[in-house]
Specification:
The protein is α+β, with helices and mostly antiparallel strands and about 250 residues long. The chain contains six helices and seven strands; from the N terminus they run H-H-H-H-E-E-H-E-E-E-E-H-E. Helix 2 crosses helix 4, helix 3 packs across helix 4 and helix 5 packs across helix 6. The longest helix is centred in the last third of the chain and has 21 residues.
Length: about 250
């Protein structure tokens, strides 16, 4: 066969001839608009419940199969079951778990490709790239980041990370001290990356009220707001505890 001749695409590589993907995209856009336009929190909760049910029915067949093909790839989404301990290919997650995570991912406005979400411990884990997209698409203008210098003390690394942004016409800011698990095999850039993900998570939680705070695998994720002007109270404006907190880490 010459290069000019049309090559036949193997059946397993051919895209399914279905309108399911286009319909799913339109549905996600509609859900996003309806959630943003909800007049009350109760109405938003009701709309979110309906959206979860509708998406659950749509993510099946060729759509679910496509999501399963993305599993374990940095171009799709990674999981903690991609590899076995001996380095061989792992089992990955079942269709039921991938479907559940896909529903949650689409509800918050992300997709199952581009490494914006992972699956850890069977749960959705929003990566730094994912939180970056969520925050940058929500705020007005740029996010001013104010990273501190990581301080390693014993088995912990302390990183202060602040940010300033504009949302809903209001200037907002936060400054938190994150306590990370120290690791002799990683450098300060890695600590800053871990702290930056948490900062973006907290900005997103501040502007939406949605807590997507699953910790890094095997890490202790503790945060205390830095506020020298005011004494600590039970909770800050974003609903975060001002005491050191340990979030559910998955292994």
């Amino acid at each position: 066969m010459s290069d000019t001749q049309q090559r036949e695409i193997p059946t397993e590589l051919a895209l399914p001839k279905s309108e399911a993907f286009a319909q799913l995209g339109e549905l996600c856009q509609d859900i996003s608009l309806k959630l943003k336009d909800a007049p009350t929190e109760m109405e938003r909760m009701a709309r979110r419940a309906i959206a979860l049910n509708v998406l659950g029915k749509c993510i099946d067949g060729p759509v679910l199969k496509a999501f399963m093909h993305l599993q374990g790839s940095p171009l799709g989404f990674r999981t903690d079951k991609d590899r076995n301990r001996d380095g061989s290919k792992g089992p990955g997650y079942s269709e039921d778990i991938v479907r559940d995570v896909a529903i949650q991912t689409l509800i918050i406005g992300l997709s199952m490709d581009g490494n914006v979400v992972n699956i850890i411990g069977g749960n959705m884990y929003v990566t730094q790239q994912g939180f970056e997209r969520l925050v940058f698409e929500s705020i007005e203008g740029a996010l001013e980041e104010i990273p501190g210098i990581p301080q390693v003390k014993g088995d912990a690394c302390y990183v202060t990370y602040g940010a300033k942004w504009k949302y809903g016409g209001e200037q907002m800011e936060l400054k938190n001290n994150y306590v990370l698990q120290a690791n002799t095999y990683i450098g300060f850039d890695a600590y800053l990356g871990k702290a930056r993900r948490r900062m973006l998570r907290d900005v997103y939680r501040r502007i939406t009220g949605i807590n997507l705070g699953l910790a890094e695998p095997g890490d202790v994720d503790r945060m205390k707001r830095v506020s020298p002007e005011k004494p600590s109270t039970a909770a800050d404006a974003s609903g975060s505890s001002l005491e050191l907190e340990k979030e559910g880490a998955a292994s």
